[in-house]
Amino acid sequence: MVNRPSIVLVTCHDLGTYLHCYGVPTPATPNLDRLAGEGLQFTNAFCVAPQCSPSRSAIATGRYPHSNGVMGLTHHPFDWDLYPDEKHIAQILKDLGYATFLLGHQHVTTNPSRLGFDLMFHDRRGEAVVNEFRRIVQAHDFQASPAYFEINLNQTHRPYEGEGLDVQSQREVFVPGFLPEAPESRDEMLQFYRSVEVADKLVGDVLEIVDQYGLRNEIIFVFTTDHGIAMPRAKCTLYDPGLRVSLLLRWPAGSFPTGQKIDSLVSNVDILPTLLAMIGIDPLPEFLQGKSFLPSMVDDRAVRDEVFAEKTFHSYYDPMRAIRTDRYKYIVNFESSFLVEVPGDIQMGVIFRRFTQLYSATQHPVIELYDLESDPLEEHNLAGNPDYADIERDLRGRLLQWMEATDDPLLQGPVASPSYRKALNVLKESP
């Protein structure tokens, strides 16, 4: 057997880039800061979709949601699922001789047994997940076979958990610019940051176990999140607060200089191709749609000029597609809906309840174009502005080319949901 490194992939919910190592001052995240210092920190990492299941499906398959089938949430009553022929990272690595373990949340299929895990531990309590990881690490023979651990922590999903954030007053809480400057924003962000600190502690526990059992130089350790934070105008939108994610990666010691920041664009659909390249798979499987960003890690070569993003379903049908370059964002909204979708868990928060009109009073336009250099909060739509006609034309062509190359079903018309198909089948049943 080829001597390949083991892999630990840790994910959190709804975290965005709200860690101290990403420049956010309020939450203390010493363990994730340590991971960034010992490895690589990607400062321009984006998810392909601003919702849990579609984004996680891209990480798991190296393919976009509209290509792998997960265009909405997988749990009931939404019931989206991977297409039958899709291969999950666990099955791919299992075929390469890896023992495969899932610890915590699973949200990419309605049938987890198809994914290729040797063991699935579905308890979402953070302490239980850490203890199960310790048990497996202690029992597993890493000389006999490398292991793939997928640890999906339930933090920092609402309702938030945690207490005792070290701030003197609510005024010290960092509030991002896309939220209203109001006590309600500081209150919700304070609750969120407490949960971030819980997540950081759990990641620290996992790192400690790796070190305790002498595996530091045998494991590729990756930390990321599914999408942006669960706040209005972030999660479920194609604006940067919904798409920008944390991505930290540590190779076995000596593989590259530590504490480096990679500024080139990367997408989370690229994580699987990169991991396969890191363990020596060459050439990469042709079905992958992501790109390996290993060249960016080795000598800071950019592998992308743009990232693509999509949303089709979440709470309701709200299809949109986007292309983002270093400077510009171009969004196409295929249906008339609220200016931004605010999922039910966010609607329960005090920000939305006070500022409902900010998000629900109007519909989003068909086309949105933003100059991220002069307008990082994406507040001034430049679509139709003659001064940006060439930019708009170029981005429109590149987005359409990507949709055609990936066989996006939106090009054929509206996308039917599992609920629609079930209802139609019932309607057509003979009396």
Automatic annotation (TrEMBL):
Molecular function (Gene Ontology), one example: arylsulfatase activity
Keywords assigned: Hydrolase
Family label: Belongs to the sulfatase family.
Superkingdom in the source lineage: Bacteria
Listed name of the protein: Sulfatase
Protein species of origin: Thermobaculum terrenum (strain ATCC BAA-798 / CCMEE 7001 / YNP1)
UniProt-listed InterPro entries: Alkaline_phosphatase_core_sf, Sulfatase, Sulfatase_N
Pfam families named among the record's database cross-references: Sulfatase
Keyword Hydrolase: yes
PANTHER family: ARYLSULFATASE FAMILY MEMBER (PTHR42693), ENDO-4-O-SULFATASE (PTHR42693:SF53)
Domain Sulfatase N-terminal residues, every copy: 6-281
